[in-house]
Give the backbone structure.
Amino acid sequence: MLRKEGLLRLFNTLKKGNTVYAPVEKEGYYIYSCVEDFSEIAIEFTLPLYPPKEFLLPQHEEILSFNMRGVRATLPNVKQVIFGVRPCDVNAINIMTQFMLSEPPDPYYQARREGTLIVAIQCTQQFENCFCAVFGTYKLSTGYDILLTPSNRGYYVTYGTRAGKRLLEKAGIKPDNKQPTVEFKPTRKQAKFHSKIQELDKYFNSKYWGVAAKDCFSCGGCTIVCPTCQCFDVDDHTNLDMKSGSRIRTWDSCQLKPFTRVAGNIFFRKNREERFRHRYFHKLSWGDNCVGCGRCLTICPTRIDMIEVVLKL
Ligand code: SF4
Ligand code: SF4
């Protein structure tokens, strides 16, 4: 069982040779930020506004540079810890890793993932807008190095990898043999949503997609904050000398019309309704791509609620 002094010891061990990112309170939100001192961490945080995916797949990333002599891949070299990752986000990282490392593996993502340690903190309740009880993504089996579970006396601690075990040994922390179990029961509305998404294909041509999409600005906010969205675009930037430059990849969004533009100036999902519906099918029907974090509702300027939309189809 870890109390404040134990947490401090763990933090100081993690700091040695690593950059540590953790939730910090900024203007009423929790945001993952680089921290130097344990006192900066908002240890009783709810769900951070943005997921930690940017540390594994940055929003802008140079992937190669070129000059008149040739081309050089810019492989990242990171040693970092993400401290305070909620279970839904650990599960989202597992989904993203499976995708990014499927053949052929993405070497940039791979280098970052291998250089990253994850300290997860178990939730003991669903926060506002969360619906992880629908998918069971509040539970963890893999993807973390160290797991802390809060109780009224402190934090139960365990490890999920050899690296996590070594870290605890270095910090002089004994893992707890027993871990408390956490169970979240879906609300009635969440349970109805769960049954309906089992047969979402039946509603592909529902007229309600057009009604719901009328409130959508196609701003792409929902995909920016989604911990499992990983689409990107690639651009070459030439320097003013016209002899050197770099190739940059930048997050993209299926909700933006230019995303659907291909050779011949063809837009394969031209209207908003099709793009809107596509996100629902990608997240809820074509694979397990939603972890129920609820960020797409939190960020949406018109408060479009995925559960409400599905229930109205
Ligand atoms: S955040 Fe809301 S308005 Fe923006 S694209 Fe997503 S659903 Fe549409
Ligand atoms: S679709 Fe929404 S609720 Fe599901 S993982 Fe993405 S942001 Fe979270």
